[in-house]
Amino acid sequence: MSDNNKKIFDVLLEFDDEATQKKDNTEIAKQLEKEIENEKKVMTRQEIYDKIFKLLEKEQFHVQNRYEFGEIDLETFEELSSARYNEYQEYVKDLALASDNELNEKMAFVINANLETF
């Protein structure tokens, strides 16, 4: 191989290495973005448990406001309050019984609930 051809070959190899490195970096960046997104969605059982009671607290507050402003009577308030409590107790039970593989599916409502707008 002549010196000129060797130089051209070396330049092509160097270019190929840079292109491969850029592609590898892009793939690594995409993988990291996926992992970060997945980390945002993953909640521990304790976090889910805590969120269940935050949601219940918001629901109970709303029912109490309806009673205090005369929208519902005492009997309706007690029925709604009890129903909400029982509903959220079911979430706690589901949380306790769900396997790790089922957790995201069974607790989707709680995990995806936005406490700011709930």
| Portion in strands | under 5%
The biggest beta sheet, please? none
Derived from helix and strand composition plus strand pairing, the structural class reads: mainly alpha
Shape: rod-shaped
Uncertain residue ranges = none
C-alpha Rg, in Å? 28 Å
- Termini, distance in Å? 73 Å
Task: Give the overall pLDDT as a whole number.
Answer: 86
Overview of this structure, please?
This protein is an all-alpha fold and 118 residues long. The chain has helices at 3-41, 45-68, 74-97, 103-106, 108-112. The longest helix is centred in the N-terminal third of the chain and has 39 residues, at 3-41. The relative contact order is 0.10.
Structural descriptors:
118 residues; mainly alpha
Summarize the structure.
With 118 residues, this protein is mostly helical. The protein has helices at 3-41, 45-68, 74-97, 103-106, 108-112.
